[in-house]
Amino acid sequence: GGPLSPLSLGRRKVLSAAASSPDNNPGYGRFQYPNDQETTTLWFHDHTLGMSLENVYSMGYGYWLIRTEDNGEDGLSAIDCKEKPQKLPGPPALIGQDPNADHKTRCQIREIPLSFQMRSYYNDGSIYLRPGGRDYQFDVMTVNGKTWPKLEVDKDRYRFRLLNSCGLREILGLYMIYKDSNDKEIDVPFYVIGSDQGMLPKVAIVTHYSATVIEDCGVTGTPNKITSGLPISPGERYDVIVDFSDLPGGTVVQLKNSKSDTYDVMHF
To answer: Global pTM?
Structure first.
């Protein structure tokens, strides 16, 4: 998704050309990523010939988040239509911080990447690396490499960078719900603010069965009926906000996938 020079695209012949360039030492290549595009959510993975699927499937990939110098976003006004300050949920984890090891840091973070991947495992818990063709039915859904994880959240707004990192054409249909005291399922909407190439011109509210565009100054348009939640194709990214502010303490919110037999994804 990034604008690169022809010698930095990562294809096999490009790698060979870069490694044999007179500007480089023998066996070495120089690849440049200027980051001179609008802020957005990108990702990268290894392109070894004949092993791309296995490398991605083994978590050989990562996020590449492009921001402004002050950690802002291109295309986002400082004030909203009601002349109030407009700010996205944050902060993200910063360089040098380890939210997995530091509970205090983890409780402060409000921007979290969530990468989804279908997997199969052997009985000893090791990854089954060669699952077969495109129609193979995986056993479980993982998020950031974890099977059915739990993320503790406060009564606040969170920003999630969603990525479908499945390697076998697995399309996701994500939605969030919780159950009230009468065991009725209640939607928790995604506020979709961005996609592959940056911020969207308008925010869309997406639930399991509807998608609605927010028009001028908070006025919502006519809901469009859908049946699968937020559809995400392999390699596709979405930038969303989820608001947990009005939910009672202790509420369990479930993230589900309508496009597969593995419906349960994670919970909050």
So the answer is: 0.86
Per-residue model confidence as pLDDT tens digits over 123-178: 888 887 765 555 556 778 889 988 899 999 999 999 999 999 887 667 889 999 99
Q: How far is CA 20 from the centre of its chain?
A: 36
In sequence order, what DSSP letters do the residues of 173-227 get, joined into one string? EEEEEEE-TTS-EEEE-EEEEEETTEEEEEEEEE-SSEEEEB-GGG-B-PPEE-S
Give the pairing type, strands 61-66 and 224-225: unpaired
**DSSP characters over 231-263:** EE-TT-EEEEEEE-TTSPTT---EEEETTSS--
174/106 Cα distance (integer angstroms): 24
Rg of the chain, C-alpha, whole Å: 20
Beta strands at 172-179 and 185-188: parallel, antiparallel or unpaired = antiparallel
